[in-house]
Design goal:
four-stranded antiparallel sheet, PduO/GlcC-like_sf, Beta-Lactamase, signal, 192 residues, 45% helix, alpha+beta, 14% strand, GlcG_carb_metab_protein, globular
């Protein structure tokens, strides 16, 4: 019994160390897996679960609008013969929808959502973020987080002056990605 308890403690410590290492690059609200010891315990009955924390009211496109944007971006990339993935996020940078084309390399949705994090944080296309960083904008550089990708390829989704989310594309060149993302945003401009 003591050996099992020691093994569980070591597994839990390893899980915690891994969680601390990735915390700096985790996206906001990422939910890393629980420690191994917690996963090996029997599940709690629903009545013993802690209450869910209140949810923020974050602006977001509807699922139908996100799908229209993603399909328009993929259609643009298909016309240009690019095999990509697309991610649509809410105004908090949380992934709402991800799609990949047949033949796209793995990780395209992940990269698109990381581009979205930058487009949302600065409420501008990632090409503009990258340009300002290349010009030495220190105030902007200070706001870049480790989970953001500032390559071109994501554009914010705006309802007038209000940020609603972002659409990011990954898999072609960065500039081609942004052309496809812009096509997705244009397809839903009046629907946000």
């Amino acid at each position: 019994m003591q050996i099992k308890a020691l093994a569980l403690a070591l597994l839990g410590a390893a899980s915690m160390a891994g969680a601390q290492e990735t915390a700096s690059t985790a996206m906001p609200d990422d939910m890393p897996p629980p420690p191994m010891a917690a996963m090996l315990r029997p599940p709690r009955p629903d009545s013993a679960r802690p209450p869910e924390p209140p949810r923020e009211n974050i602006a977001a496109p509807s699922r139908a609008v996100a799908l229209i944007a993603a399909e328009a971006a993929l259609a643009q990339c298909a016309r240009d013969a690019h095999e990509v993935g697309v991610a649509v996020s809410d105004a908090g940078g949380h992934l709402l929808l991800g799609m990949t084309m047949d033949g796209a390399r793995p990780g395209r949705i992940y990269s698109g959502s990381r581009k979205n994090a930058a487009a949302v944080a600065f409420a501008m296309p990632t090409s503009a973020v990258q340009a300002r960083l290349q010009q030495g904008d220190a105030a902007m550089a200070a706001r870049v987080k480790p989970w953001m990708v500032v390559f071109p390829g994501a554009v914010p989704l705006m309802a007038g002056d209000r940020l609603v989310g972002a659409i990011g594309v990954s898999g072609a060149t960065a500039q081609q990605d942004e052309v496809c993302a812009a096509a997705g945003a244009a397809a839903v401009k009046g629907r946000l």
